[in-house]
Amino acid sequence: MTSFFQTPPRLQNAYTSDSVLKSVLKRRLPPDVLEAIEPGLMSLGDRTVTEMPSLAAAAESQPPVHVPFDPWGRRIDEIQVSDAWKQMHRIAAEEGIVATAYERAHGPYSRIHQLVRLYLYHPSSAIYSCPLAMTDGAARVLELLGPQDLQERAFSRLISRDPQEFWTSGQWMTERTGGSDVGKSLTRAEPGDRDGIWRLYGNKWFTSAVTSDMTLTLARMDDRIPGTRGLSLFYVELRRSDGTLNGIRVLRLKDKLGTRALPTAELDLVGTEARLLGDHGHGLRKIAPLLNITRTYNAVCALGTMRRGIALARDYATRREAFGKRLSEQPLHLETLAALQTELEAGMQLTMRLAELLGREECGDATDSEQALLRILTPLAKLFTGKQVVRVCSEVLECFGGAGYVEDTGLPQLLRDGQVLPIWEGTTNILSLDVLRAGDREGALGPLLDDCRRMLSELTPRCEARHLAPALRSARDAVARITEFVRRIPDLDPDQIHLAARTLALGLASTYSGLLLLDQAVWSHEHETSAAADRSTAARRWCRRRLFEFDDASLQELPDTQRLAMTGDG
Ligand code: MFK
What we know:
The chain is of the alpha+beta class. The chain is built from 19 helices and 11 strands. α9 runs parallel beside α11, α10 crosses α17 (529-544) and α11 packs across α14 (445-464).
């Protein structure tokens, strides 16, 4: 009797095997910039499938440990992390995963370059991308608000390529009162015993990457001013010069569904020395540049995870045989893989457009409309890709049958880690409300719809000849429906607007992605014939769906819906 063994999937160079990424970079970067950065992308793409996967597996299998006391009873609150986790720090510094954005070697294109490096690095990093996200966000806040001494002491370390010098930062916002409603935060800041030093007292309930060197956090100086307006922004170093913790007590590490190599803790702040950044109050407004960077990382990491899952499923399809044929020869399986690839391409178009705008803003090149567009695309890309990654990873696991459900294949980790992406950095609903805040209150819906109309008019003559006209019609209908819905917003009451926020946000993201897919498809026809057919197929597939649909009955049925939500079981 012959034995049968399944062949595990293999990964190829993460950059050279990624045809959509290469198309997007050709579309968005000048040829000389692409030529300059490509060798580095190839070598990182190789490293992520050779050196890094075994480190990531080791980090995952040796989760961090909290040691509250030393053998003699002294409180030390040491967090022991694996050597593999430390190697991720080294590789991140060497590869300039944060630094590339701030060196600005390619001006406004540096953000695209840096985020593509993150996209390659993330799926092999055991989520070291999380401390890097907060590090990058903190660097941006210090660049904008930091006094000279902190620029020299902290900013320069956050963007260092030297693993010994390189610092990471946390972002401590969440308290027991809630991760979404930051305005309820209770942590107090009291004047310290030295000029310019404050002491913080309170509890931080969800602090990721607690082994970082510094953090940015929020605290209240004056109880009389409620909400986020009354919070101020502080800079904290975790350890004093003698190596002891800076008035920080680690209560415990969180036992999480995924991101298991990442130390996430509950902390008490007991007189933590802190420096105020900027003036008093309006802490949320001041920390917003950090939030917008971490939300961008979230989107990029969602793409990286999707790409990894699809690459594994695609390779496996060439090896796995069932019913006398390889999976790669079975129409239904191919349809599934094509659907996954289409999701990836849509998310990538949206996120790379965001990266392009972020780079322009950071270099002072963005027009007012581009700044508005950046503001609204940030929550849109985060919320949209956060939902995509969970459904893509779930389907990827299914592509492997039972093996996808077995821990030591490494596949379930994709789904476990992916599931955090729609949660942290603002849930889908909170971000849908942020889209309304940005779109309606801050006026970004106009520039977004203008950009849609600009693309529609530029694409109209170019789509006709390339069998893309029906797809363009579908995008045009969606833009018209959204425009009509937005026109009605002033007539709706606040509960109705609230109810519609998620549908509007998902519709905006789907429609804008559809237009970007069409733009890419047409551009590929004009400039890179080899990829044109695939890019067109992805655009056609995406636009065949209803890109924006709002059922007016849901507004009339609001009271019934609310009753159903709460009385379904009694
Ligand atoms: C692999 C990927 C790595 C990712 C790393 C993750 C690790 C970290 C894990 C975490 O820390 S998760 C915790 C993250 N927390 C959040 O994302 C908070 C979610 N909640 C919100 O975003 C709420 O919408 C918010 C706290 C902002 C609501 O507070 P408010 O006080 O009701 O908001 P309000 O009054 O509308 O806004 C206050 C100000 O901030 C306004 O400006 P003004 O003072 O000038 O009027 C807003 O315009 C401004 N603002 C709010 N969000 C903004 C923003 N400005 C720019 N960008 C934004 N996103």
